[in-house]
Amino acid sequence: MSEPADGANPGAVPPSLPPERTGALVGRFLVDAAVAFVVLSAVGMVAGMAWAAWRAFQVVGQGPGPAPDAQAIAQALGQPGVLAQILMAVLGMSSAALLLYFWRRRADAGERARSRAAARRPSTWAWSLSIGLAVFAGSTLIGWLMRQAGVEPVPSNLPMVEEASQRWPLFLFVFAVVLAPAYEELLFRRVLFGRFLAAGRPWLGLVLSSLAFALVHEVPGLSGNPPLAVLQLWLVYAGMGAAFAWVYRRTGTLWSPIAAHALNNAVALYVHGLV
């Protein structure tokens, strides 16, 4: 998870290379996003089928007596539990991030060296700390302002997080503070935003990658939130994505947005009493 590192635009292409046209950049971004969507969907489908097969084996193998019919098996299968859902999410997103990184945006030795150099600078971690806390404060302020207007959305993943906090708090902490920041930053910042950064179009990349980040975290139609509440969640998530992209560009190492993302999640879990 290392990448270009120096200066205000650490990922710039070498001066000898012609600049890539905006249309071509957006096209490559859309291909990356489409590949990520397909991988997420395919991994989720395969994982769901594997879980269903395992549950069916458990149901059919339960003790003596007549074998259950197909309807009874379907009723007994139910839905994957919270732990299974989290594991499926980890597997899907990490698969998409790693595939796109190694296939489409792999760092070379020079980029990795510059990233390590950036990670050794104290200012890198000062920026990570500042952005992580600023993101949490900003999202909290937006939530408070919207509550004054009578809007209080429920994030799609909140029920899953609340149940996980009751049954598997340690696993929830590892997922939210270690795994999710790592694979999400690899995908959204290193791959999606990094393509624009390397081509000298950071602001366009910041907007597009942040919108993708928001849509993945709050998919339209998956919750009972009214449109204004969904817009609030998109604003919060897009703001988070933009802040993490900015600190990535500012510091020149992916470890910085990973740390900022992890800090934001850790503070949110603690403040809301989830760990």
TrEMBL record:
<keyword id="KW-0645">Protease</keyword>
<protein>
    <submittedName>
        <fullName>CPBP family intramembrane metalloprotease</fullName>
    </submittedName>
</protein>
<feature type="transmembrane region" description="Helical">
    <location>
        <begin position="124"/>
        <end position="146"/>
    </location>
</feature>
<feature type="transmembrane region" description="Helical">
    <location>
        <begin position="196"/>
        <end position="216"/>
    </location>
</feature>
<dbReference type="GO" id="GO:0008237">
    <property type="term" value="F:metallopeptidase activity"/>
</dbReference>
<feature type="transmembrane region" description="Helical">
    <location>
        <begin position="82"/>
        <end position="103"/>
    </location>
</feature>
<dbReference type="GO" id="GO:0004175">
    <property type="term" value="F:endopeptidase activity"/>
</dbReference>
<keyword id="KW-0482">Metalloprotease</keyword>
<dbReference type="InterPro" id="IPR052710">
    <property type="entry name" value="CAAX_protease"/>
</dbReference>
<dbReference type="InterPro" id="IPR003675">
    <property type="entry name" value="Rce1/LyrA-like_dom"/>
</dbReference>
<feature type="transmembrane region" description="Helical">
    <location>
        <begin position="29"/>
        <end position="54"/>
    </location>
</feature>
<keyword id="KW-0378">Hydrolase</keyword>
<keyword id="KW-1133">Transmembrane helix</keyword>
<dbReference type="GO" id="GO:0006508">
    <property type="term" value="P:proteolysis"/>
</dbReference>
<keyword id="KW-0472">Membrane</keyword>
<dbReference type="GO" id="GO:0080120">
    <property type="term" value="P:CAAX-box protein maturation"/>
</dbReference>
<feature type="transmembrane region" description="Helical">
    <location>
        <begin position="228"/>
        <end position="248"/>
    </location>
</feature>
<keyword id="KW-0812">Transmembrane</keyword>
<dbReference type="Pfam" id="PF02517">
    <property type="entry name" value="Rce1-like"/>
</dbReference>
<feature type="transmembrane region" description="Helical">
    <location>
        <begin position="166"/>
        <end position="184"/>
    </location>
</feature>
<feature type="domain" description="CAAX prenyl protease 2/Lysostaphin resistance protein A-like">
    <location>
        <begin position="167"/>
        <end position="267"/>
    </location>
</feature>
